[in-house]
Design a protein that fits this description.
This protein starts with a strand and ends with a strand. The protein is globular, with a radius of gyration of 14 Å. The protein is mostly beta strands. The chain has one domain: YVTN repeat-like/Quinoprotein amine dehydrogenase (Methylamine Dehydrogenase, Chain H, 7 Propeller), CATH 2.130.10. Keywords: Repeat, WD repeat.
Length: 143
């Protein structure tokens, strides 16, 4: 299965390799920049130009949580391997660590001087890697 997001504000899940559409989701009010599966495969997070990250229950095919707090578009998102946290990278020069159980921002990571373009939890750790338009990479302790 492959998930994609698009300028049409939709995400789609595709069967691979035949290319059949399995599911489509709508709810964002601007383009989608990223899709990432929960470690269990039961949920998906999407990031968008509408400044939100949405959490989708794939068994129901609908949004179960909207995370808002960035001032500008969000370029990327990543699940922690435990499945309780999502990280987001934004054009507002910050990244955020979200607790999906409470629906709240746990940490705002500040330090980049320009848009944060990608974010990734390192496997089975509390370390987050970000890359920025300021031409730097940063490693963060998300604890």
């Amino acid at each position: 299965i492959v998930a994609t997001g698009s300028d049409d504000r939709l995400w789609k899940m595709w069967a691979f390799p035949n290319g059949n559409i399995i599911m489509t989701g709508e709810g964002h009010t601007d383009w989608l920049s990223g899709c990432c599966f929960h470690p269990s495969g039961t949920q998906m997070a999407t990031s968008s130009g509408d400044t939100t990250v949405r959490i989708w229950d794939l068994s129901k095919g609908k949004c179960i949580l909207t995370l808002g707090g960035h001032a500008h578009a969000i370029w990327d998102c990543s699940w922690h391997s435990c499945g309780d946290f999502v990280a987001s990278a934004s054009m507002d020069s910050t990244s955020k660590i979200w607790d999906v159980n409470s629906g709240r921002c746990r940490h705002t990571l500040r330090g980049h001087k320009d848009s944060v373009n990608s974010i990734e939890f390192l496997p089975f750790s509390n370390t987050v890697l970000t890359s920025s338009a300021d031409k730097t990479l940063s490693l963060w302790d998300a604890r």
